[in-house]
Design brief:
The complex is a heterodimer of chains A (532) and B (149).
Chain A: E1 5-10, H1 14-23, E2 30-33, H2 63-66, E3 75-78, H3 110-114, H4 124-138, H5 164-175, E4 180-181, H6 219-225, E5 229-231, E6 235-241, E7 247-253, E8 259-269, H7 272-281, E9 308-314, E10 327-331, E11 347-352, H8 357-367, H9 376-383, E12 387-394, E13 403-411, E14 417-422, H10 427-446, E15 450-455, E16 492-494, H11 509-525
Parallel strand pairs in A: 1-2, 1-8, 2-5, 3-14, 8-16
Antiparallel strand pairs in A: 4-10, 6-7, 7-8, 9-12, 9-15, 10-11, 11-12, 13-14
Chain B: H1 2-6, H2 9-22, H3 37-45, H4 51-65, H5 74-87, H6 89-103, H7 107-112, H8 136-141
Helix pairs in contact in B: 3-6, 4-5, 4-6
Classes of the chains: A alpha/beta (532), B mainly alpha (149).
Chain lengths: 532, 149
């Protein structure tokens, strides 16, 4: 029999770790459950000669391909963009590019500015202290002063430009377009117990050096030292409620597969934009027949992915290939709405430095630019180590038909119904992607690139899982209020990307964590009347 | 060795033949073909979760060939492989990938490419700092963030 706790957090990833850390100072009994376990840096791909092959198997970005016991299947057949994530302590911060832009102030006011979607119930200024705290906790490198991005104060200098950075910078300068060193969570100096980056290469699937911030090595050690309990290999099945309609706890399966109940005064969900609606919909009961916290009918709806329009080519000069973190520069040249382009809103650009030899061979063979037969070797030597990427992160506007529901057949290893994703790319997004590809081509031509290829959308590019339990002041049009509390269940909070009202055109993890810290702060300031 | 047993002898023969057709030996670059015994051994030893798809791909090749690919003459092999690449779908992509991922980690091949024979960790790589003056025009142009009203 588990003793009830004050606060139960479900999910130990980006947002769960941040909210746990922030609430720890209350000295409440805080427990976090995660379906995954602690990862071991010594076993990360870059420690072996077969590091690239692992990306196609046990370290694939898609949980459906990876199929670790900690993963759950996702039916994304009806989506051109497949869900990618990672399930462990640290969540998808184990497996991400560490690219660290923030949403812009204007992203919180899209209805006011552009007449589309909805404004957020909070603004950028409300999040600024939490962005700053989060940057310090995660350890950010970058260069302050980007005229086209919100002001940041990275505690570490930016990554070196390497070989690829100057090629990108020169091409962008030729076009007169904005570019800037990315803020990243890659440590460029020794930082808070983390060793500096030594350029192991493609650090997306976890960093053996520990230079890339993931919450297992940033927030969690602090939270655990402060008394938070973290229970691993525990998969939540459903949130239970009492006769008053309040959350009473969670039914979960422990590491031995035994069903357990964990009572709690407060439940916080931090399972990402697919896992959170899955859990809420699996928590349907007589009192909440359409799923928990779902009186609006919006749980699972308005899924936003960020369709990526990627274009790449090959330059004569050597690029960094697999000898550097994949991203180092961004551009906000096409970030803001300009209706003359034929679409509303815009996109951020994330440049890529190159690829390793196996990835290059596999990708180029699939694209048909690497031939079979006697010419294979000559062409491979022309391509390998010469790739540059231009990836547009297109703002995805909320549409209710893009949604997460429960699959009627598919179940995870514990028999829990799996999520089903139905998603289409909107006409606005398609126009944005076409614009990005055309301008990406201009960029590549300015860089002197040839053999230009596209991935639009990047099929396995569903990194950013947003909008499926949106924030708002109107209970009929949102799932949680302006400080993350469910409109329907007064002791239930959501802190992950589900609460996003709109997606912006940048990687969202920085903003997700800032929101988690903001919600925690709101909870702390309202402890006396948290459920009123 | 369970993995090796999962491909039949005929399938292994066809795997070797199609590997060599994909990447032949080159005297110019001083590299083996992907049909080299060591590389084939690596493929078979590490097929793992890809075994089923590779087996499906090889069965497809055998169907197109009407018999073992290895038993055909060169011209007929080319025709079969052309058809296989057009119609093989996901299993064909997996077959190509397993050949490439083993070929491009072979010591002789990496040496020919001028790459070090090691895992990235713990030595890592050194990146040049690059010319930061390239950012001067961006700074000079300046810019501003869109307002919120």
């Amino acid at each position: 029999m588990n003793q009830p706790v004050d606060v139960l957090i479900i999910g130990a990833g980006a947002s769960g770790a941040a909210v746990a850390y922030s609430l720890a100072e209350t000295k409440m009994h805080i427990l976090c459950l995660d379906q995954g376990g602690w990862m071991k840096q010594a076993e990360y791909p870059s420690t072996g000669r077969d590091w690239e092959a692992k990306f196609y198997g046990e370290w694939a970005t898609s949980p459906n391909i990876r199929g670790r016991p900690e993963d759950y299947p996702i039916n994304d057949d009806n989506s051109p963009i497949k869900v990618v994530n990672f399930n462990a302590v640290g969540g998808s911060t184990i497996m991400y590019t560490a690219h660290w832009p923030r949403l812009h102030p204007s992203d919180f006011k899209v209805k006011t500015l552009d007449g589309v979607a909805d404004d957020w119930p909070i603004d950028y200024d409300a999040l600024v202290p939490f962005f700053e705290e989060n940057d310090r906790m995660m350890g950010v490198s970058g260069l302050s002063g980007d005229p086209r991005s919100p002001l940041t104060h990275p505690p570490m200098p930016p990554q070196p430009l390497g070989l690829s950075g100057p090629l990108i910078g020169k091409a962008m300068n030729k076009l007169g377009w904005h570019w800037w060193p990315s803020d990243t969570t890659v440590a460029t100096t020794d930082y808070e117990g983390r060793a500096r980056c030594i350029n192991l290469g493609h650090c997306t699937p976890a960093c053996a050096q520990g230079a890339k911030a993931s919450t297992d090595i940033t927030y969690w050690p602090h939270a655990i030292r402060a008394g938070v309990e973290l229970r691993t290999h525990c998969r939540a099945r459903e949130i239970t409620t009492n006769e008053d309609g309040m959350a009473s706890g969670v039914i979960y399966y422990d590491k031995d597969g035994v069903e357990q109940f964990q009572g709690a005064e407060v439940v916080i969900i931090a399972c990402n934009g697919v896992g959170t609606p899955r859990l809420l919909l699996n928590s349907a009961s007589g009192k909440f027949p359409n799923g928990l916290a779902n009186s609006s009918g919006l749980v699972g709806k308005n899924l936003m992915f960020h369709p990526y329009a990627q274009i790449y080519g090959f330059v004569k000069e050597p690029t960094d290939s697999n000898r550097a973190p994949p991203t180092c520069l961004w551009s906000k040249e096409f970030y803001d709405t300009d209706l003359s382009r034929g679409f509303t809103r815009g996109y951020g650009i994330q440049f890529g430095r190159g690829a390793g030899p196996v990835f290059e061979a596999v990708a180029s063979e699939q694209k048909g630019i690497l031939p079979w037969g006697k010419d294979h070797h000559r062409v491979f030597r022309k391509l390998n180590g010469h790739r540059l990427y231009f990836s547009a992160i297109c703002e995805d506007l909320p549409e209710e038909h893009n949604r997460v529901t429960l699959d009627p057949v598919l179940k995870d290893g514990h028999g829990i119904p799996a999520p089903k994703v139905d998603y289409t790319i909107s006409e606005n997004s398609r126009k944005m992607m076409e614009h990005a590809l055309a301008h990406g081509r201009e960029f590549l031509e300015a860089a002197g690139a040839t053999d230009i290829c596209t991935n639009s959308p990047i099929p396995w590019g569903g990194w950013h899982l947003l909008g499926t339990a949106r924030m708002g002041t109107d209970p009929e049009r949102s799932v949680v209020n302006e400080w993350g509390r469910s409109h329907d269940v007064k002791n239930l909070f959501i802190v992950d990307g589900s609460v996003f009202v709109t997606s912006g055109g940048v990687n969202p993890t920085s903003t997700i964590q800032a929101i988690a810290l903001y919600v925690a702060d709101q909870m702390k300031s309202r402890l006396a009347n948290l459920f009123d | 060795m369970i993995v090796e047993k999962s491909l039949t002898s005929a399938q292994r023969d066809d795997l070797r033949v199609i590997s060599g057709m994909m990447i032949p030996e080159s005297d110019e670059y001083k590299v083996p073909g992907a049909d080299d015994a060591t590389i084939q051994g690596d493929i078979l030893a590490t097929l793992g979760r890809d075994t089923r798809m590779v087996s499906t791909a090889l069965d497809h090749i055998a169907r197109l060939a009407g018999k073992s690919l290895a038993a055909l003459d060169e011209a007929k092999r080319e025709a079969v492989v052309t058809e296989f690449r057009a119609s093989g779908g996901a299993p064909a992509a997996v077959l190509a990938r397993v050949i490439l991922q083993c070929y491009y980690r072979d010591d002789r091949v990496l040496r020919s490419l001028g790459l070090e024979l090691r895992a990235p960790f713990p030595k890592g790589h050194v990146l040049p700092e690059g010319d930061w003056s390239l950012l001067d025009p961006v700074k000079a142009r300046g810019g501003s963030l869109r307002g919120t009203t």
